[in-house]
Structure formats: structure tokens, C-alpha cells
Amino acid sequence: MVKKEFQRKLIYQMSPQEDSTLAALLLRPGPTLALQSARFKEDGEMVEKVGRIYIKTMHDNVIKPEQQEAMIKKWPPSQVHVLDSDHSPFFSAPFSLFGLLLKVAATSAGYK
After folding, report:
1. CB contact at 8 A, 88 and 11
2. How far is Cα 106 from Cα 35, in angstroms, rounded to an integer?
3. Residue ranges per structural domain of the chain
4. Which of 69, 78, 70 has its CA nearest to residue 49?
5. What three-state secondary structure class fits 80?
6. How many CB atoms lie within 10 A of CB 104?
7. pLDDT computed for residue 60 by the predictor
8. What does the pLDDT look like over 67-112, one tens digit per residue?
């Protein structure tokens, strides 16, 4: 979905060069139509068995912070967390992401 020459600048600008190079080799086209036509049930129609969280990525050039805020507002998750990362925190902030996922797992263990 992103041309090869723009991938580093848009997706991996904070990630180590070797990680972004490998990731670019592994990228495949995304399900554009599925993403464009995604619909979520209104409140009360579905009982969530697993709480949804949202991790905002503050330097995301793919999904800008204002777009992330709009998604949070439209489909409010049970928790919102913020990472100082690009679109790919598993490359640009792996230790912060790992710590956050551990925190979420520990605080969500009793969620039903």
C-alpha cells in the first residue's frame, strides 16, 4: 500500500535502519477493501469478552494523531495508552511496547 521509496519515511522513520530494511522486504499488500468497509456493532449489540485497548503512536505518519483520536472517539476502547514511536512500535520502541503489553495483560487479567 506504500511505495517502497516512501516506506522508511512514512512507516519506519524512528526504527533502526536494519529493521526497516527487513520489514520492507517482508511487507505485503494489505486488505484495503476490508479496512474501508469495516463496520462495528453499536453499543449493546455485542458483549465483549476481551477488552479492547488502543495504543496511540505519537509519531505515526500512516495514521496521524488526529485520525487516531477520531477512531478512539468513534469506537471507545476500555483503555488508551500512548507510545513515543512511529507506526511500527515493535521496531521503534520494542521495550516500551513490551512493558505496556505486560501492564495491560496484568491489569486486564480479570476482564470478562
Report:
1. yes
2. 30
3. 4-28+49-107
4. 78
5. strand
6. 16
7. 94
8. 999 999 998 999 999 999 999 999 999 999 999 999 999 987 655 4
For the question of whether the overall pTM of this predicted structure is more than 0.70, the answer is yes
SS3 readout for the chain: CCCHHHHHHHCCCCCCHHHHHHHHHHCCCCCHHHHHCCCCCCCCCCCCCCCCEEEEECCCCCCCHHHHHHHHHHCCCCEEEEECCCCCHHHHCHHHHHHHHHHHHHHCCCCC
Residue with cell 519506519: 12
| Per-residue model confidence (pLDDT) at position 26 | 78
H or E element, residue 32: helix 32-36
Cβ proximity of 24 and 40 under 8 Å: no
Could you give the 3-state DSSP secondary structure of residue 112? coil
Per mean pLDDT, which range of 28-37, 42-51, 65-74 is the poorest? 42-51
CA distance 20 to 44: 41
